[in-house]
Amino acid sequence: MATAKHLRRCLWADGDPLMTAYHDVEWGLPEYDSRALWEKLMLDGFQAGLSWSIILRKRDAFRKAFKNFRPEKVARFDEHDVARLMNDAGIVRSRAKIESTIGGARAYLAMQDAGVDFSAFVWGLAGGKPIQNRGPIPTMSPLSEQLSKALKGHGFKFVGPVIVYAWMQAVGIVNDHSPACFRRKAVQAATG
Fold first, then answer.
1. Of these four, 1, 69, 89, 154, which has the most CB atoms within 10 Å of its CB?
2. Kind and range of the H or E run holding 153
3. What is the DSSP string of 56-91?
């Protein structure tokens, strides 16, 4: 039996212990919790133009700064909170991304108030179950374009089709573990 150190993984997950742990435990596993889906979407927005390892290393600081990504708390952030976050060296200090996250909390809550469950909305557009990608891994797809447009229609920002596709991979809407990766079959089995 292969030890964790000798397992075959997606190439991006080798070499960095934090990325390896993220890959082995979290990436690609289907997420159905609305709040957790929203948090991961906001973090993927912060990743725009950066590497995921930067966001992953700062994830605990992001959670602290954004009140554990509780939309009802983040939606009440005001200009004082924006200033506080702009001075927080533990996170990515981009005013546009900070304001987008606050706006994203408000959009999430507006959907909720209208009777739209975020998870049901996202998974409904995805066909209700994870997509098992068998071909080359794209940077975006027709579904990520559709989701991007739908999210923008609800008022979300930093949700272009490339960001949305990366998020879809992370939350298991699409299984993009490489064919040789030990997690591919495990994730596939977990999704039924």
1. 69
2. helix 142-153
3. HHHHHHHHHHTGGG-HHHHTT--HHHHHHHHT-TTS
Long-range (24+ apart) CB contacts under 8 A made by 185-190 are 187/28, 187/29, 187/30, 187/130, 188/132, 190/29, 190/30
Q: Nearest-CA neighbor of 45 among 163, 149, 173? A: 163
pTM given for the model: 0.93
pLDDT digits (tens, 9 = 90+) for 144-161: 999 999 999 999 999 999
- The pair of three-digit structure tokens given for residue 97, joined into one six-digit string: 């991304």
Q: Which residues pair with 132 in a beta bridge?
A: 175
CB atoms within 10 A of CB 147: 24
Helical spans, DSSP H, in 10-141: 17-25, 34-47, 52-65, 71-74, 79-86, 95-113, 118-125
Pick from 24, 25, 13: which is nearest to 52 by CA? 13
Tokens coding 51: 């590497």
Taking only the tens place, the pLDDT of each residue in 128-141 is 999 998 888 999 99
Query: How many Cα atoms sit within 13 Å of 116 on the Cβ side?
Result: 15
Distance CA 58, CA 49 (A): 15
